[in-house]
Amino acid sequence: MPLPLRATIWNEFLHEQTNEIVRAVYPDGIHAVIAEGLHQCLGDAVAVRTATLAEPEHGLSEAVLDQTDVLVWWGHIAHDRVEDVVVERVHRRVIEGMGLVVLHSGHGSKIFIKLMGTGCMIRWREAGERERLWIVNPGHPIVEGFEDEYFELPHEEMYGEMFDIPQPDELILISWFEGGEVFRSCCTFRRGKGKILYFRPGHETYPTYYDQNVRRVLANGVQWAAPTGSRFFGAARNIRDPLSAPVPRHS
Questions:
Q1: How far apart are CA 211 and CA 198, in angstroms?
Q2: Is the pTM of this model over 0.85?
Q3: For site-directed labelling of 67, which of 73, 188, 229, 235 has its Cα 20 to 30 A away?
Q4: pLDDT band at 229 (very low <50, low <70, confident <90, very high)
Q5: Domain for residue 141, yes or no?
């Protein structure tokens, strides 16, 4: 039996403890709902642990990272509180081959900026608009299982160009918002032996990580970012259809 892909989900876990609106959507934390989605889509093919800012070494010790095949990163209001020694540790592991999936406001994280070598800033508007995500690279494994040309989120924070990143290796999804803005919402990069995915949706006040299409992208993305040629590569390719499994609803 193949060994499971080992994913670590890192979340600041601050909004959920200080904002009643966010707590109502993610009572156990954004990281818990992302973990639930990975288990729903991948089942026993993934082993998930979580880590948060307040833990010693932010939950990202050498031992944890050595046992992580793909690190998923959600950050927003405390980028500056992430210790540089941890950033260096994560950077080294990515160069060595660990996958990294950066979500939403993680574009401003120390680790993403270090890996990109640019400012990584955006235009934004917290307006709760409809977001349509167009699939512009339909043959890519990150959008495996999608039959339509796009999917929609009824309410999301607007991110708009320009997005100060290097030219992506691959562009997979482009977002359009009701206000007319567009954004490169799903793109990939390679640094050293590591693969990096940036995926835009995920504002903390909206139930984005319960959405089945978002869950499918994240599950596919974690598999894509897994180190090629590793002990488990290919073990999780038979992704479950999240639409066929019940999803606990947020309160």
A1: 18
A2: yes
A3: 188
A4: low
A5: no
